[in-house]
Amino acid sequence: MLKLEESLEGEKFDFISCIGNTFSIFSPEERNLILNQMYKLLNVRGKMFFQVVNYLSHTNETEWFYKPNILRSSSDEIQYTVRIMKWKELKEKITMYVLKAQQESKKGDNFILYQKKTEFYVLKSNYFKEFTDKVKGELSIFGDYEKSEFNEKMSKDLVAIITKK
User: Fold this and answer.
1) Are 115 and 128 found together in one domain?
2) How many domains does the chain have?
3) How far is it, in rounded angstroms, from Cα 139 to Cα 164?
4) What is the pLDDT of residue 30?
5) In sequence order, what are the residues at sequence separation of 6 or more whose Cβ sits closer than 8 angstroms to the Cβ of residue 9?
6) Does 107 share its domain with 34?
7) Which of 4, 52, 70, 101 has the fewest CB atoms within 10 Å, i.e. the most exposed one?
8) Together in a domain, 128 and 104
9) Whether residue 30 sits in one domain with residue 11
């Protein structure tokens, strides 16, 4: 979050959303409702800041791993988590499988396995372009918090700044 604060120093926003992949769980219809409601709440010349994962940087892969990690919980048990991402529909929808093995107790040899499956709708820069065209707003697209140029195939993030006219 410090990077965000440093890169946006001196700027004012009515709304900031840095939720990685969470906004992607909503269907396109649900996203439209959410964005429309948020846009209506903006002040004149108010700004919305969105940061989401750019899944399109993985279009050359059929599946990939996302931040596997091992850690100790607050009660000292070992946890291992891996996220496996697979294209359900290329450039449109992704399925994420989360596998987590957690030690039953601090001194135990038994592990509990958790599994979870989530689907994401891929957010693209043209989605934000179409939205701002519809509401007659202004749009700036970047590849990260530092406002680097967005590259669909290379940028890890998609940052959209929408300004109400």
Assistant:
1) no
2) 2
3) 9
4) 94
5) none
6) no
7) 70
8) no
9) yes
**What count of other Cβ atoms lies within 10 Å of the Cβ of residue 142?**
19
User: Is 67 in the same domain as 116?
Assistant: yes
Contacts of 49 (CB under 8 A, 6+ apart): 8, 13, 15, 16, 17, 18, 159, 160, 161
Give the model's confidence band at 135: pLDDT under 50 very low, under 70 low, under 90 confident, else very high. very high
* One domain for residues 116 and 129: no
The pLDDT tens digits of the residues spanning 5-29 come to 677 777 888 888 887 788 899 999 9
Domain residue limits at 82 = 63-120
Q: What is the pLDDT of residues 57-80, one digit of tens each?
A: 988 888 888 778 888 888 888 889
Nearest-CA neighbor of 123 among 3, 17, 13? 17
Q: What is the mean pLDDT of the chain?
A: 89
Q: Could you tell me if 80 and 157 lie in one domain?
A: no
The answer to whether the beta carbons of residues 90 and 69 sit under 8 Å apart is: no
Residue type, 163: T
The model's pTM: 0.81
